[in-house]
TrEMBL record, chains A, B, C, D:
Keyword Lyase appears in the UniProt entry: yes
InterPro entries (alphabetical): ArAA_b-elim_lyase/Thr_aldolase, PyrdxlP-dep_Trfase, PyrdxlP-dep_Trfase_major, PyrdxlP-dep_Trfase_small
Alphabetized GO MF terms: lyase activity
Protein name per its UniProtKB record: Low specificity L-threonine aldolase
Domain of life: Bacteria
């Protein structure tokens, strides 16, 4: 049983079905009827007029967002454990033409107004130093913690005060949202978010994410940047169809609830072993090398996460009965 | 009936079937079994050891190739009607960090050693001028002409003589190949091609192309560039599966033959109206505005291509019976 | 006697003297008193509030201007013989992060509204094509022709109509201005120029040019770009002092008048041999290889400019008595 | 009396004299006789064949070096207080097209093999993470400490072991060298340094630094990059002349010795107040706000350096009699 990541799971059956339905001739690029529905569909979801671009990967969504929010000579503030800093192979620097990521601290990869202020205080307003233009937060974070809407809003208020844009990397936005049990609007634009990378790949999609702009005037140049990055599929309808299929019948929320519930099962069994509270679908455990080996012997796969720690991620399609043996095996380690 | 382009057609049934087969958990990125088969599969096809990266779009394939072949301070020689110059939204400049495209002439968007030499003769060897590092040709060309292997080899010889790499944009490689009726090897590395953008999207694929390197030492940095461009799908197996499905049973060749045959049908009807010889699946016609309107009235859609000209492209899945009415309508214009 | 170019001449004595005067401790970068005078000095000259940055080279001035006027995904329209296209080693692409130069025609390297409109008409408004954001003209041109204020204004009107910025590469601005015998204001902002590369290096300076912004809101980011390009001298006063020294007592105009007069002397002797009218300090001659050799034998150095042509450039400091022997030698070729 | 920095001092009289001597017509760019002497002059100094480019600023030298040593998709390891990270306005990212600076720790802004190893151990060899290609150290450091040759060699050995290049930012190379009392060769290539930014601006120069390559094959592309960055002065002789003048009669060493001696005077007076040992020409003092104000009241200017600290820098031209009053004033604070 694999708990490496939620990024390689099969896709939701409704996604495959929707792609088969889209398998008809239609206008190229994003001129088709599926792509044409995205703005309205997501505007309804977010209770405000949004502008949306499909893109194939989370890295593409994040980096097109950053390029829209920060000039080449500027900086984006993020956590030192942020995905954009550590796991995107320098894509932020590629898309922004060399903007700097300036790194802040925070428990569980969460930024706070205080850690951001501490970072901001080190930057002189002078051409010698790269000036901040945006903040990027990840929700849920790289350690499976989530920001509540009020926590986002506190950062949003700081961003507004300093004239910074606010980006949310929502590769696991659904998981954060169902944990917070709030509306998409409360988690984003009402809390000051300028642009959201709305993730579907880890939520039952195949290769489609939605880049959502809450502020007017950002999508236009982003369309050019998307093309210029080789991301404009000629058969874009297959990407739009994935997003629409997961939004339909709230599948995205159900998928996230299922994954979070699986992680909660493991967390309950892990007790004191938990490195971080489990708020989404990721579990970080303290396990010795012997214990990790014992779990692997029983057929459970996962990543080591530094010495004495392991990361387990539950995917949208893993069922309680898949997870209970793992939970039991972890409990039995005690 | 749409003859706008071959880039928006539905996908081949075997492609959808292969994607459904790949809909199982496997290792992320390109660690899966489908991705793992590409190098061997294409090495067999090309009768030499090649290194292959899947990418989602033709623009991505072209521009990763150019970035591998030309430094930021260098230049790529191409035709002034090349797709990389006119239709990729500046992606070559993005991926190469600002390398220049230097533009040569040639009938039907075909370069020749002579037009390339004429261009090269204008470039002084001096830091003031951007120095050539690569040549890029498109086969079949933007006007539906093809290079024969000996024509590629003549350019390949010039490239070797001047120390330049040679890239082939093969968005319609299959169409060119079946016209030339030669082996993939003869059309590429045996003729001096360094890297090939091997197109599948216009050949029955959904969103997958193969970037093929014939020279060692180029793929390694390209892996990093692919990730850095946000092109590394976490579920790469769905891309590899598309490519493998089209190669299987020589579907890619059958699809190209069918499209070329459709274009030949139109060409036969068009006679003197042809702007260019029809060697692949594109037809350029001389038609007056009234004639174009008449064709559209009968339900045939296509692009105007400058004043008095029209472009019609036949897709992999259009059948003779779809095309005959168009051919008849064109013939009836006389 | 060297007529290779005006870019390597010694500096005006007043420039050296001013640099020696500036050889005192003052605030670093552009916080010194000389740098602090530039805005006011040039605002007076241009009869409007301008914002000015010193930079060390013409390439730096041009490319910082282009970066201020065109985003990475945009295009700059210029003549196919423009210095930014042919002689700056790809610096425009470096500074703009890969914007494209789109090339227009025109006699003597001069653009006209008609040739610009012809170029613009080839660009579809679509993400597939790089969209124009600016026009760049060179005055005096690479062939020593000049734009009159009304010619600049005609291009400025087109730029305004299409929402494009207008940059003037004024490496030889002084030479153009004295030929037109108009005010700096008439030649620039009153004719629609957004930014001017105001050249001093070819006018008796050592290594200082003025980048002049006629539109508010462009200088701020340019300050960051100047630093980011490694162009912000810590001892900037030595650059500002050069500019101020040449402006003082209208030395820049006297120097240009002298150089233009020298070229006129040659032109008068050359008669039918002239390839272009001589309006500034450059002369292009038709000479056979034998004639060129004969001139060189007499000690006159210059560049061949394609087969059967030669370029001779008169520098600010060459006196009539230096030039008369050359004029006589040319006349004697007949 | 100003102790803000050593970057704004007047230039050495020999520099001005050499520039006046170079004020004759010679070949443009670096074709002149002064530029032509640099390779041989610095090869003699470094006791090995080196290749040298003049550039106008330290930022330009550093960033051209980094661009030669690290591809756009790579990383440079440096100290978190390095000038390239904090004070060059993102120039490293501009010149390298977005390479990342990865930050290591170390007392007094000095890297050690241990802190570098700790940083390297966090980087997985995978396309998701930006891979290291070079190390950059500053000697003397931003806090006025120096690396001894054996310390450089230890880092050089690590670099060699890991296949990394080693860059030395030598904005204050002279100050470090006279402190170590070793040969330039021992401090650089014999210790594994690949490229040196050899600073002259802080050592009596006006606007010229030498970028020195100790490894073959790096200078060629750097020549193109220098042009492409707008750094290739047409009157390059005035830059080369500065460098040659400071090397002549070992003026650069005398200047550094003088500045270091001045700093030592202050250090001796400061005693317990010193934040770092004083090994070059910078002094960091613990002073209360009141004490700082008292010093300023007496006419001494300097930067606050965080709360309770001050930075004082001695320039090449400050004499003992200039400094003694400051030393006395500091001593009197006790």
């Amino acid at each position: 049983m694999r708990f490496f990541s939620d990024n390689a799971a099969p896709v939701h059956p409704a996604v495959l079905a929707a792609m088969a339905e889209a398998d008809v001739l239609d206008t190229a690029y994003d001129g088709d009827r599926w792509s044409g529905m995205l703005d309205a569909r997501l505007s309804a979801l977010f209770e405000t007029e949004v502008e949306v671009l499909w893109v194939p990967t989370g890295t593409a969504a994040n980096c097109l967002a950053l390029a829209a929010l920060c000039p080449p000579h500027g900086a984006v503030l993020c956590h030192h454990d942020a995905h954009i800093q550590n796991d995107e192979g320098g894509a932020p620097e590629f898309y922004t033409h060399g903007a700097k990521l300036l790194l802040a601290d925070g428990e569980g990869a969460k930024l706070t107004p205080d850690t951001l202020r501490a970072l901001l205080s080190t930057i002189r307003v002078a051409v010698h130093q790269v000036q901040p233009h945006a903040i990027s937060i990840t929700n849920a974070t790289e350690y499976g913690l989530t920001y509540r809407p009020d926590e986002v809003a506190a950062i949003g208020a700081l961003a507004a005060e300093r004239g910074l844009a606010l980006h949310m990397d929502g590769a696991r936005f659904a998981n954060a949202l169902v944990h917070a049990d709030c509306s998409p609007a409360d988690m984003t634009w009402r809390a000051g978010v300028t642009a959201l990378s709305f993730g579907f790949v880890k939520n039952g999609g195949m290769g489609a994410e939605a880049l959502v702009f809450f502020k007017r005037g950002l999508v236009e140049a982003s369309r050019y940047r998307r093309k210029r990055a080789g991301l404009l599929f000629s058969k874009g309808r297959y990407l739009a169809a994935q997003i629409l299929a997961l939004l339909e019948e709230d599948r995205w929320l159900a998928n996230a609830r299922n994954a979070n519930a699986g992680a909660a099962l493991i967390a309950a069994a892990a007790g004191e072993r938990l490195v971080h509270p489990v708020e989404a679908n990721e579990v970080f455990l303290r396990v010795s090398a012997e214990e990790a080996a014992a779990l692997r012997d029983k057929g459970f796969d996962f990543y080591d996460w530094g010495p004495g720690e392991a990361r387990l991620v539950v995917s949208w399609n893993q069922r309680a009965e898949d997870i209970e043996p793992l939970a039991a095996a972890i409990a039995a380690l005690r």
